[in-house]
């Protein structure tokens, strides 16, 4: 049987327990109910209990923002917030805090929509994953290349494992930002 490192919460970031670290068994909360497929987990403020909320008549939870990426973004890019919307990447603390996927392309200074949850559909994923179609029944993760996704999670110490979603078909991804981030 393989040796595995436990995951711990360190200043709000999920990380692998390092060999010299110890465990502090502080307050720990579990959600007390499980939601239905029409519900999503809402991000609570620090110190509050996890809650479930319904998405009203929509297949996506959407927000808008101004593109701050010098070369712009394309539809499907994973997006983080850093003085505006920028392409997310797994090798940076700031850039690994993924907000969602860009619904539309936009140049620096443009306002675009970002899908934060739900079902995200795109006919051509080439600019995001390097091939036209998703691999159905596969998880997709941030990569070290800003704005890109891969079915292979990062494995280098200091990088963040950020699961973006699950491919339901070759065009549709169920956005799942849970667990939010795990630092290797």
Explained architecture:
The chain has one helix spanning 126-129; strands at residues 7-10, 13-16, 39-42, 51-54, 60-66, 78-81, 85-87, 98-102, 111-121, 139-142, 149-150, 160-161, 163-167, 172-175, 182-183. Helix content is 2%, strand content 35%. It has one domain. It is mainly beta and 184 residues long. Strands 5, 6, 7, 8, 9, 10, 11, 13 and 14 form a nine-stranded antiparallel β-sheet that branches. Residues 25-58 have low confidence and may be disordered. The radius of gyration is 17 Å and the shape is globular.
Helix amount: under 10%
Overall pLDDT score:
78
| Order of helical and strand elements | EEEEEEEEEHEEEEEE
From the N-terminal CA to the C-terminal CA, the straight-line distance is 21 Å
**Beta-strand level of the residues, as a percent range?**
35-45%
Topology:
Blueprint: E1 7-10, E2 13-16, E3 39-42, E4 51-54, E5 60-66, E6 78-81, E7 85-87, E8 98-102, E9 111-121, H1 126-129, E10 139-142, E11 149-150, E12 160-161, E13 163-167, E14 172-175, E15 182-183
Parallel strand pairs: 2-15
Antiparallel strand pairs: 1-2, 3-4, 5-9, 6-7, 6-8, 8-9, 9-14, 10-11, 10-13, 12-15, 13-14
């Amino acid at each position: 049987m393989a040796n595995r490192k436990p995951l711990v919460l360190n200043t709000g970031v999920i990380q692998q327990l390092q060999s010299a670290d110890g465990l502090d068994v502080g307050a720990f909360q579990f959600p007390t109910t499980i939601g239905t497929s029409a519900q999503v987990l809402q991000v609570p403020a620090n110190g509050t209990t996890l809650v479930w909320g319904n998405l009203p008549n929509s297949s996506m939870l959407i927000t808008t923002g101004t593109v701050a990426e010098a070369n712009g973004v394309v539809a499907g890019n994973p997006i983080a917030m850093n003085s505006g919307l920028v392409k997310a990447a797994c090798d940076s603390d700031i850039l690994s805090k993924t907000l969602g996927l860009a619904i539309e392309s936009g140049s620096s200074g443009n306002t675009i929509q970002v899908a934060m949850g739900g079902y995200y559909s795109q006919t051509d994923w080439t600019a995001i994953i390097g091939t036209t179609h998703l691999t159905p029944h596969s998880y997709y993760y941030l990569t070290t290349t800003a704005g890109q996704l891969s079915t292979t999670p990062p494995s280098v110490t200091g990088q963040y494992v950020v699961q973006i979603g699950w491919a339901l078909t070759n065009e549709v991804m169920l956005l799942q930002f849970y667990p939010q981030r795990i630092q290797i």
